[in-house]
Description:
single chain, alpha/beta, Aldehyde Dehydrogenase, Chain A, domain 1, Aldehyde Dehydrogenase, Chain A, domain 2, 2 domains, seven-stranded mixed β-sheet, binds nicotinamide-adenine-dinucleotide, binds manganese (II) ion
Amino acid sequence: MNTRIEIDAPQDSGESPETTDYNWEYSPAPERMQVDIKDRYGLFINGSFRSPVSKKYFKTVNPATEEVLAEVAQAGAKDVDKAVEAARAAQPKWARLKPTERAKYLFRIARRIQERSRELAVLETMDSGKPIKESRDVDLNITAQYLFYYAGWADKLDYAFAGARPKPVGVCGQIIPWNFPLMMAAWKIGPALACGNTCVLKPAETSPLTALRLAEILQEVDLPPGVVNILTGAGATGQAIAEHPNVKKVAFTGSTQVGKILAKVCAKKGKHLTLELGGKSPNIIFEDASLDQAVEGIVSGIYFNQGQVCCAGSRLLVQESIHDEVVKKLAHRFESLRVGDPLDKNTDVGAINSPEQLKKIEHYINVGAAEGADMHSCPVGDLPPKGYWCRPCFFTDVQPSHQIARDEIFGPVLAVMTFRTPKEALELANNTPYGLSAGVWTDKGARIFELAKKLDAGVIWCNLFDAFSPFGGFKESGFGREGGRHGLRPYVAL
Ligand code: NAD
Ligand code: MN
């Protein structure tokens, strides 16, 4: 069922209260930078680009236009072998470098990313569909911040692990998803390199282009060959990296399903493993909260990167007494979201990363309605003729047993449920196989601390990411932490 919520017009508008359409018209504000993209990219092994032994290539597409952006090599088993061998050969020397020298390389990479950040942001948006204002203001900043942060640790490892003598683990296989392509690459290589390891990194098959630009940057800063190798390819390439006998540590961010496969692979071969997996994170909003602030936080959290965020607050638990008011405010806020061209600087909601992901989201939207929840969708204008688009929406009258309340959708879809007491809120919040993040909106500091202790979640929201704070999950959201001093631990043997 498709319900529109009646909204009061602004007090001074002089318009009749039935008017719900008071969105301002924006002129187009396209980002004009042209980014050079080659027709074809090879694999980055031992410091240079080379054609794959596999001889295979695949296409990467702009999800907002369905245009093919480039062909990218598909690394096969022999290519993985070569990359791992290059990383293994480079590792002892890299580890013996003076730590301050390793830091200098990381600082240089970070600075070069800053210098090329506009180009990288445009390319990230073209290859992944996320709005330019996010790639420009969030992804690129956090990417550089993580590298600066871990550069700073390189010569202070003895302080990070007081009393121990931290040693590198060796070659790290790092497999990343498509939702934060460049940022995830930085989260992975930053701590690994700081600790004296070398890497074989695989970006996701739908968003490989910024990782390949990163390879160019590694050449520009003269990073010794073999220290970071970048292999493009799909799941089979990822699995070959994880299974390779000379890969000593696997770091994975992606689906819980693949995480479970990798847990088996690594358990069999006794490899170190960290997993950053999915989530179905709750936002809990109490009647004493500042409602406008809470609604703003919740709405921006659910449309950010089209909801394709592992720690997105995709369940909203509202205290019963304020349910109607919160729903009204939510609907009002959803009305002003701008869905469309991700390269337009005014766009809030860009394209879904792939047709498969869009199909999955649409499936859940249909299931939500079929199970009896009420859908409220964002009434946007015409969408571009091509591309993978999804209007953000939220469901009310959701039961905890509904699929949209239980499964990770990974799209701009919010499930709203109610509670009466803090105890019930806590039970609802923890009633999930996941445990990545949670948000608490209340005026009472004591209540926040009390709930933070009892919520099964790796991160309790106060703010956005920061390189200083550890990030990671409980339960089926994975294990191990990235960020902060904790983020060094998986990359050292003590
Ligand atoms: P995925 O887990 O299949 O892909 C993530 C990465 O793992 C990609 O680089 C992929 O090539 C690689 N991969 C796939 N199969 C592999 C295997 N057997 N061995 C090693 N590597 C493998 O995720 P997806 O299919 O792109 O998205 C599916 C779902 O995953 C999404 O709907 C979402 O729920 C979840 N997801 C979570 C995150 C996150 O940040 N936690 C990110 C992306 C996707
Ligand atoms: Mn793409």
